[in-house]
Amino acid sequence: PDVFNWFRHVDEQVKEQRIDTVVFCFGANDDSGSMTGLPDGVSLGEFGGARWTKEYRRRVGGLIDTANQAGTLVVWLGLPVTNDRGQSRRWKVINRAILAEVEERPGKAAYVDMYGLLSDDGDYAPYLPADDGQLEKVRADDGVHLERDGGDIIANQVVRELRRVYDLWSWRGQ
Fold it and tell me: pTM of the predicted model, to two decimals?
């Protein structure tokens, strides 16, 4: 919160813009024991420990609740598997915390599992088979970011989540 106050920003935006849906995709820099916004001298212990996880979940849940109070659906994209096994393990910890908070808010929040969608049985995969069986490059050469085809996989899953809540296609019949 002392770097950028997401709570205030989300609250302002969903109210001012009358946003129906917000898609969150962040947390990649949160895989350390330090956390901003704590009083001087306060420590949450090491990354992934009980105190750290409790505070991280409180913050994730707070963002979801802030958006939900304005009637906004939250779709949260989990972090993807990367080509760095250590980073991927840490991001799984973050994803579990996010998923736990999303699951406590059925109908108000949805989770898109980028880790699973962009992996090959849980392992990093720079290429994945398309519907026609041909391999397509889904990951950038840095081993973290997405190529367009990877983004399309995630976008399609976001649309599936939105269709659970909204009628996205009835306008076609008009």
Answer: 0.90
